[in-house]
Design brief:
The protein has eleven helices and eleven strands. By secondary structure, it is of the alpha/beta class. The longest helix is centred in the middle third of the chain and has 22 residues, at about 145-165. The protein binds 6-O-phosphono-beta-D-fructofuranose. InterPro entries: ATP_PFK, ATP_PFK_prok-type, PFKA_ATP_prok, Phosphofructokinase_CS, Phosphofructokinase_dom, PKF_sf.
């Protein structure tokens, strides 16, 4: 597309927050200043766009944010933005500030919103993959995924200590919505006895057989990682089913939950977010609209948002094979 003249860019974070969002905002804003643009913070995602919670940013706003978890622009899941009336209000507010382009940082729901908004109002926009779930195509990793995996592994290591002391079987549930990326990474990285992910079926009797084999091999602790979106249920449900087969086992359940979304971003996420924040602004200036900037083999790639959200990125078969070998 022929580049439009862009002078004012609005930045927002939307959906579930992820570590590294602040670093991405900072990089986009810094890049904007580098190219002599005015940069605006849209607070609370699309909700703030609808309620006109929009402020011009200066360099003070982005001082000491790179290293902080969460998002200083705050985030929300806006129901009103899903309606044409909500999007019209949002558009009118952007126009009242003269904002002529957008950087949207979020997961698939947030990028879907950006795509729809672009189709309806033609405002140049670029999405950045900000989610711990890693479920977007067009990037090897999403911003926050690496930190979330590190957090999960650190927590599971601690569970391992107590599991070993008491010879217990733990079921640990990790986030990821419908995807098993956190589960497979955290499972391999913490020597899990088994990993249950939505992408692969594991019948309960197979899991039970595996645990029995490990018991014969005198393994001192067993940790089963369960992805929250699994078709056979969450960690509590699976634990209940296994208990019926193995009534003598001392079984405990831990749901890691939102702690996986917090904390300072890892060096990987800081770098990824910084590269993509700059890529977002440069992409807009080059006329790349309605795309998501991602990093593939360490190179910036712009993928149409429609493709990034629809293409099913699935857990690598090879990772699953390795997990299987390592848990026997
Ligand atoms: O998409 C990120 C995520 O943390 C998912 O892993 C999880 O299913 C969901 O958000 C939780 O959403 P909320 O914070 O709205 O409960």
């Amino acid at each position: 597309m022929e580049p439009k003249t862009i002078k004012k860019i609005g930045v927002l974070t939307s959906g579930g927050d992820s570590p590294g969002m602040n670093a991405a905002i900072r990089a986009a804003v810094r890049a904007g200043f580098y190219y002599n643009l005015e940069m605006y913070g849209i607070y609370r995602g699309y909700e703030g766009m609808i309620q006109n919670d929009i402020k011009k940013l200066d360099s003070k706003n982005i001082t000491h944010v790179l290293e902080r978890g969460g998002t200083f622009l705050k985030s929300a899941r806006s129901l009103e933005f899903k309606t044409p009336e909500g999007r019209k209000k949002a558009y009118d507010n952007l126009m009242s500030h003269g904002i002529d382009a957008l950087v949207v940082i979020g997961g698939d729901g947030s990028l879907t919103g950006a795509h729809l908004f672009f189709k309806e109002y033609g405002i140049p926009s670029i999405g950045l993959p900000g989610t711990i779930d890693n479920d977007l195509s067009g990037t090897d990793s999403t911003i926050g995924f690496d930190t979330a995996c590190n957090t999960a592994i650190e927590a599971i290591d601690k569970i391992r200590d107590t599991a070993t002391s008491h010879d217990r079987l733990f079921f640990v549930e990790v986030m990821g919505r419908d995807a098993g990326f956190i589960a497979i990474n955290a499972g391999i990285g913490s020597a899990a006895a088994a990993i249950l992910i939505p992408e692969k079926k594991m019948p309960i009797d197979h899991l039970v057989d595996k645990l029995k084999i490990r018991s014969k091999a005198k393994k001192s602790s067993n940790i089963v990682i369960v992805a929250e979106g699994g078709k056979s249920g969450g960690a509590g449900e699976i634990a209940g089913k296994v208990k019926k087969y193995l009534p003598t086992y001392d079984i405990k359940v831990t749901i890691l939950g939102h702690l996986q979304r917090g904390g300072a971003p890892s060096s990987f996420d800081r770098l990824l977010a910084s590269k993509l924040g700059v890529a977002a602004v440069e992409g807009l200036l080059q006329g790349k609209y309605d795309v998501m900037a991602g990093l593939i083999n360490n190179k910036v790639v712009y993928t149409p948002i429609k493709k990034a959200i629809v293409d099913d990125k699935t857990v690598d078969e090879e990772d699953f094979r390795i997990a299987k070998i390592l848990s026997t």
